[in-house]
Automatic annotation (TrEMBL):
Biological classification of the source: Eukaryota, Metazoa, Ecdysozoa, Arthropoda, Hexapoda
This protein's name: Atlastin
Species, as recorded: Zeugodacus cucurbitae
PROSITE patterns found in the cross-reference section: G_GB1_RHD3
GO molecular function terms attached to this record: GTP binding; GTPase activity
Domain of life: Eukaryota
Gene3D superfamilies linked to this entry: AHSP (1.20.58.420), P-loop containing nucleotide triphosphate hydrolases (3.40.50.300)
Length: 800
């Protein structure tokens, strides 16, 4: 047995002065947690009370009730009737003792509430109640009447424990309830009490009327339906009693045996008479078996455990007045509790419907529509209240209508805030979706443009539009009608961002084309250089020179035609024609030199070209921008032409020297084209490396940022960004270690990278700021709900 008796109502003095009046004290500290426990609060309640004169074995009987309750409703085994316990087992539970002094004061409940689930699905909680014995030497008549009346009003089954027989005084204790019942029936038309069980202890007349329920029925009929002439007051009391309770029964119990009067008696079965034990086995299931349980009802409505608390509190206030309460006062308290419960249920109906309407998984609702739903649900709640068995006159009931309306109006403000917060949440979700779409677009385009192949512009536009269309479809799939304006605004931002990315990827694609052209240019120069190498021996006959030219030209063209040129076919064809033109021109020049026997001048001519080439070779060890390379070319060419001008003409005409100078100029330009193409190739390769590394650095930055939740703070965003920024920047800075390094290009793409990083920071910070607004709105709503809930339960403001 795990439970214990809890005194919920005790009797004390108003103050410490002598002669101060007695007052009732309610132990809410233990009562409230007991009745609002989640396991029991929503179950129908059955309250079984034992009341009657002091020292007549009420607590003693209740402890046998407890043995049955634990066996039947906890252990689930009463089939073999051994629930009475062992012969040597002392009786425990509610405190009791033999003798003439009272042991129980006030009203006690057993702390364990017993549970039973009917096959029909009905769930019941069973509470046992013990009461102070009436009419002892230590209590006033008012105290005794208060306790008896309170236990009767609270219980669904009142067991009236009476010694030997039912007397007139016993019936007069019920006078208050018959008056109350008359008032209640005038208002509701229903009997206010469920069951009154007379329990006659130590029945002395077994020879006339047998023990048990049958004998009790005979005795009750004799008393309530007697044909003998009785005083009019007694006659009316009996009639009123029959109309006050749904069921009135009586049970005659034998004496337990003289051993119970001994001081050392502990309630062991071995000390009780067999007849008494036999009738315990009969009586207790008649009251406590599942099929015999009586649910507490008020005005025909079954009462829940949590609602019982409200009745106890209101009855306590009524009975704790200076004077004994009038039946009308008790009826008012009952009506107050009854109507309050139905009003609270109506309020909860409104609350449930509005919660469903504004639940997190539901979309934002237009303000006008929300107001319309509020009025509709408030009207339904009032109708629900009207359809319940409410008590009292119209003026008394009006305050509950007002209470429901005030509740709905005050809570509507909170639901409106919750609904409004969904706009901020929707914006946050759309921003998150937008950022996700941008990353998906970048990933799709990065995957497509892996490698060095150029994509023709028309095909490139088609691919970009296809990816963009899918991304926008993905974004639009999250759209809701209630947040159309926010969706449209952020979608416009997304389209603008995608258009910027279009420009970026188009530039990268064009850079690939430039790289291909640079490679073609370089290979064209290499082919020309091969031709020059093969044609280097100028000491040949014209016939030999012509043959050598044909072979060298063929090898040069074969070498050049192996160059990949997909996407740059027209440019490749132009370079091929230029190569043919230059080889033929070179051949004619050599042939002319041989014819004119200008070997010495040609040697000097070749030395000057070599001087220029050596200077260009040295400067091109580094990757230069086109402007820098052109500047060096102009400088070196000027120097070589000055050296040419200083040569002696050896009797040659001015025109001849002018022609040779022009030829030197053309050859230098040709050499420059070679080194320019080579530098362009290196520069483009470095550009591609910068683009690739910049993409990797951005991925390093984005990975931790994408792992942030929508509700991470701005500080969390900045902290994560700073760590990722440094790591990404370190990765990009590794480009400085490359041999083919160009500072201007490096700085250009570093600047772009910083701009993109800043844009990502602004995007994710904006999302975090919206998230914080959502969290703050949610906190405001939650705090208000908590405060309202606290006040609803404890009837006082929450501690601040």
């Amino acid at each position: 047995m795990q439970g214990k008796p809890i005194q919920i109502i005790s009797i004390g003095n108003e103050d410490d002065t002598s002669g101060s009046r007695c007052i009732l004290e309610l132990n809410e500290a233990e009562l409230i947690p007991m009745l609002i426990d989640e396991k029991v609060k929503d179950r129908d309640v059955c309250v079984i009370s034992v009341a009657g004169a002091f020292r007549k074995g009420k607590s003693f009987l209740l402890d046998f009730f407890l043995r049955y309750m634990y066996a039947r409703y906890v252990d689930g085994n009463v089939s073999d009737n051994d629930w009475l316990g062992g012969d040597e087992e002392p009786l425990k539970g509610f405190s009791w003792r033999g003798g003439s002094k009272r042991d129980t004061t006030g009203i006690l409940l057993w702390s364990d509430i017993f549970l039973y689930d009917y096959p029909t699905g009905e769930k019941v909680a069973i509470i046992l109640m013990d009461t102070q014995g009436t009419f002892d030497c230590e209590s006033t008549m008012k105290d005794c009447a208060n306790v008896f009346a309170l236990s009767t009003m609270i219980s669904s089954v009142q067991i009236f424990n009476i010694q030997s027989n039912i007397q007139k005084d016993d019936l007069q204790h019920l006078q208050l309830f018959t008056e109350y019942a008359r008032i209640a029936m005038e208002d509701t038309g229903k009997k206010p009490f469920q069951k009154l069980q007379f329990l006659i202890r130590d029945w002395p007349n077994e020879f006339e009327t047998p023990y048990g329920a049958i004998g009790g029925k005979l005795l009750l009929e004799t008393i309530l339906n007697s044909k003998e002439k009785r005083h009019e007051e007694n006659e009316q009391l009996c009639e009123n009693l029959k109309t006050s309770f749904d069921e009135i029964n009586c049970y005659l119990m034998p004496h337990p045996g003289l051993t119970v009067q001994k001081p050392d008696f502990q309630g062991c079965l071995k000390d009780l008479q067999d007849d008494f034990k036999k009738h315990l086995l009969d009586l207790i299931p008649l009251i406590l078996a599942p099929e015999n349980l009586i649910i507490k009802e008020i005005n025909g409505e079954k009462l829940k455990v949590a609602h019982l608390l409200e009745y106890i509190q209101l009855y306590f206030e009524s009975f704790n007045s200076k004077d004994f309460p009038e039946p009308t006062t008790i009826f008012k308290a009952t009506a107050e509790a009854n109507n309050q419960i139905h009003a609270t249920n109506a309020e909860e109906l409104y609350n449930i419907k509005m919660k469903q309407l504004t639940a997190p998984d539901q979309p934002y609702i237009d303000e006008a529509e929300l107001k319309k739903k509020h009025e509709e649900y408030m009207s339904q709640s009032i109708s629900d209240f009207e359809n319940k068995p409410i008590m009292g006159r119209a003026k008394f009931i009006q305050k509950y209508y007002n209470k429901i309306k005030n509740y709905a109006s005050s809570h509507f403000t909170q639901f409106a805030k919750i609904n409004e917060a969904k706009l901020a949440l929707a914006e946050l979700n759309y921003l998150n979706d937008k950022n996700s779409c941008i990353r998906s677009f970048e990933k799709a385009m990065d995957d497509f443009f892996i490698g060095e192949a150029y994509t023709p512009l028309d095909e490139f536009k088609k691919i970009m539009e296809n990816v963009k269309s899918k991304i926008l479809q993905k974004f639009d799939s999250k759209r809701t009608n209630s947040t159309e304006k926010i969706h449209t605004r952020i979608r416009k931002e997304l389209v603008e961002d995608l258009d910027k990315l279009y420009t970026k990827y188009n530039h990268q694609n064009e850079m690939k084309l430039a790289s291909i052209k640079s490679y073609i240019n370089m290979e064209c120069a290499e082919a020309k250089k091969l031709y020059d190498k093969l044609m280097n021996n100028s000491e040949q006959s014209i016939e030999a020179l012509t043959k050598a030219h044909a072979g060298a030209k063929k090898q040069a063209l074969e070498m050049f035609r192996k160059v990949p040129h997909v996407g740059a076919e027209d440019f490749f064809k132009d370079c091929e024609n230029q190569l043919i033109e230059k080889t033929d021109k070179k051949f004619n020049s050599i042939k002319e030199c041989i014819v004119n026997k200008q070997q010495y001048l040609q040697l000097q001519f070749s030395q000057l070209k070599m001087n220029y080439e050596n200077l260009m070779k040295e400067v091109c060890k580094k990757v230069l921008t086109n402007d820098n390379l052109l500047s060096k070319h102009e400088e070196f060419k000027g120097k070589v032409l000055e050296e040419f001008d200083d040569l002696t003409n050896n009797g040659k005409s001015v025109n001849y020297m002018v022609e040779r100078r022009q030829k030197l100029d053309e050859d230098i330009e040709e050499i420059f084209d070679y080194y320019k193409s080579k530098n362009d190739k290196s520069l483009n390769e470095f550009v591609q490396k910068c683009i690739s590394t910049k993409r990797q650095a951005k991925n390093v930055l984005m990975e931790p940022l994408e792992n942030l939740s929508m509700f991470d703070s701005v500080d969390d965003v900045n902290s994560t960004y700073n760590r990722a920024f440094n790591e990404a920047l370190d990765l990009y800075m590794e480009l400085q270690d490359l041999i083919s390094f160009n500072q201007e290009t490096f700085d250009e793409y570093l600047s772009e990278l910083r701009e993109e990083f800043e844009a990502e920071l602004q995007r994710i910070t904006r999302r975090a700021e919206v998230g914080e607004r959502v969290k703050n709105a949610a906190k405001t709503v939650l705090l208000t709900v908590v405060i309202v809930g606290f006040v609803a339960i404890f009837k006082v403001p929450p501690p601040i």
